[in-house]
Hints:
Blueprint: E1 12-16, E2 19-23, E3 26-30, E4 35-39, E5 44-47, E6 53-58, E7 65-66, H1 69-72, H2 75-85
Antiparallel strand pairs: 1-4, 2-3, 5-6, 6-7
Amino acid sequence: MARVVEGSEKWKAHIRCAHPVCGGRLYRVDGCFSVIEITLDDIQGRRDSDGDWSFWVMCPSCGQMLYPEWQIGSGPLEIVKKRLVR
């Protein structure tokens, strides 16, 4: 069985409080740009009426709703999805 030699056994990631926003021809990023540490327990999610999932994390510094998939990838979100389905 694999074991952790260095670091934490519990998944966590550092993300920046930054949310890409597209409005017309302008592309910008909203947020306070703080670096925050998240775990799987911090990620919230729900399925809409079309069956698509959305996941978010709230920034503890400014309260911005962040969509972390573009920063952490889909692997951790699949774990959260399985937990929410149960």
